[in-house]
Amino acid sequence: MPPTHPAELMRTALSVLTQVAADLAPLGDMFAADGHELALVGGPVRDAFLGRRSDDHDFATSAPPEVTERILRAWGEATWDMGREFGTIGARRGEAIVEVTTYRTEEYDPTSRKPTVAFGDTLEGDLSRRDFRVNAMAVRLPDLTFVDPFSGLSDLADGVLRTPSSPQQSFEDDPLRMMRAARFASTLGLDVAPEVMAAMSELAPRLAIVSAERVQGELVKTLMAPAPRRGIELLVETGLADVVLPELPAMQLEIDEHHRHKDVYAHSLTVLEQAIDLETGPDGAVPGPDLVLRIAALLHDIGKPATRRNEPGGRVSFHHHEIVGAKMARKRMRALAFDKATTAAVTDLIALHLRFHGYGEAAWTDSAVRRYVTDAGPQLERLHRLTRADCTTRNRKKAERLSHAYDDLEARIAELREQEELDAVRPDLDGNQIMEILGIGPSREVGLAYKHLLALRMEEGPLGPERATAELRAWWEANRP
C-alpha cells in the first residue's frame, strides 16, 4: 500500500461516513437520549478511509448489555444476543446490520485459550485493547467526532501496521493477533513495523494456546485475500508457520528436480499466485477467491521432504510425493479443524496433480482421458488450473510445450464429454438390470459385475444395452460362484 497523505484519506472517509451517519445517526440519538455514548469502531472506520463501505457496522458503547439490548429492540427489526458473554448485542434494520459491544478490556490467562472479559468505562480505554492502531480509530455518533488516540490514521497513510500498546503486551494478551498481522498484510497491503515483526518472532510459540478453529479462521482470511503470498511469507519468516503449518517452512530445504533454480517453498508460492490468476469471475467454472484451489496450490508439494531420494548421477527424486502429500495435507487440515468436504477436495487435488505429466510425451487413449475425468470428479476444473499453475519453469519452450499439451487434453475432454456424457460415466446396465439378467438377488456378485461393466465402459466408451448384456453374460459364465 503506497503512502498517502492523511488529509486525502480524510476526504475519502468523509463521503463514506456521511452516508453511514444518514442511516445510523438515529441510533446514536437513542443512545445519547439514554445518557450513553455510541461510536463506530474498528474495521468499518478503517475501511471508510480506504473508500469502502459495508452494511455491517461494529459499535462500542458505554451502555451495559441489557441497556443496549433494550435500545436495539426499539430501533431494529430483529435482535440477537449470541455475543452477550462478551458484551455484544446485534440488530438488523433494513439492510443495516449492527453489533454493539460495551466498552471492555480483555486479557489472556497464560494457560487459557479464551479471553477473560472485563467491561470498561471509556472509549479510549476500549480502543487501547484493539489489535492494531489502524483498527483503534472511532467515530462518535451522532456528531461524527473522529477519535484517534493512537495515530491509526497516520499508520494507515504510511501503510504500516503497529500495535496500540507494546507488541509484546498485545500478543501476550491475544496471540491470535500475530495471525491477524499476516491477514492485514495480505488484505490491506500493509507492511509490518520492525518491532511488531520482532515480537511475532519472539512470541510465535505462544500461538499454540489458541484454538484450532480461531487459527483456521485467520489462515483462511489470509489465503482468501487479494495478495496471500505477503501474509504466508510473514508467517514463515516469523516462525508462526512452524506452529500453524509446519509443512510449509519444511519445504525450504527441498530443491525441486524440475525447477532447480528455486526451492520447493518458493515454487509453491509461485504456483499459488498463478492459480489465483486462473480463477474466474462469478459465472465462471472456478469463481475466485476459491479456498480449495488456493490451499491445494500452496500444499501440493508438501510431500517432497518425506520422499526425497538421491539418485545415481546426482539426480534428486521425489517418487509418490503426491500421495504422501495428500495424506499429510489431510492430517494438517484435520488438526486445523477444516470441514470434511474442503479437506477431501484439497487432498484429491494434491493426489492428482501429477497425473497429467507424461501426456505430452505419449498421447493418452480415450480410456485414459475418461479415467482422468472420472478420478477428478467435481474437482476437474480446479485440477485444470492447478496443473497449469504448477508450471513455473523459466524454459519458455518447455512451458509452451506443456501449455499446448494441456490445451490438447482439455479439447479431448470436451470432445468426449459431448459424445459420451463424460461427467457421469457409469456402466450401460445398472444394478437392477444386472440382477434381472443374471437372475440373482442383491449380493457381492452384483457389485463385481457392476465394476466389470464400468471398467469396460472406461476402456471402450458406451457399449449399448445389447453388447453390455452379452459382456455381462460372458463374465458371469467365467465367474459364476
Characterize the structure shown.
The chain has a 7-stranded mixed sheet with strand order 3-4-5-2-1-8-9. A two-stranded antiparallel ribbon has the order 6-7. It has a two-stranded parallel sheet with strand order 10-11. Strand 6 and strand 7 form a beta hairpin. The protein has helices spanning 6-33, 43-49, 65-75, 123-128, 152-158, 167-173, 176-187, 194-203, 212-223, 228-238, 240-244, 247-250, 264-277, 291-299, 304-307, 321-335, 340-352, 366-376, 380-389, 396-420, 431-438, 444-460, 465-479; strands at 38-41, 56-61, 78-80, 88-93, 96-102, 104-108, 115-119, 138-141, 145-147, 160-161, 191-192, 309-310, 316-317. It has 23 helices and 13 strands. It folds into 4 domains: 6-158, Beta Polymerase, domain 2 (2-Layer Sandwich), CATH 3.30.460.10; 160-244, Hydrophobic Seed Protein, CATH 1.10.110; 253-424, Hypothetical protein af1432 (Orthogonal Bundle), CATH 1.10.3210; 431-479, no CATH class. The radius of gyration is 29 Å and the shape is elongated. The model has no long low-confidence stretch (mean pLDDT 90). With 481 residues, it is of the alpha+beta class. The termini are far apart. The relative contact order is 0.06.
Structural class: alpha+beta
The CATH class designation of the largest domain is Mainly Alpha
Any idea what the shape is?
elongated
Helix proportion range? 40-55%
Nearest-angstrom radius of gyration?
A: 29 Å
Q: Which fold name is given in CATH as the topology of the largest domain? A: Hypothetical protein af1432
Average residue pLDDT: 90
Architecture of the largest domain, according to CATH?
A: Orthogonal Bundle
Protein name: Poly(A) polymerase
GO molecular function, one term: nucleotidyltransferase activity
Domain HD: 264-405
Keywords: ATP-binding, Magnesium, Metal-binding, Nucleotide-binding, Nucleotidyltransferase, RNA repair, RNA-binding, Transferase, tRNA processing
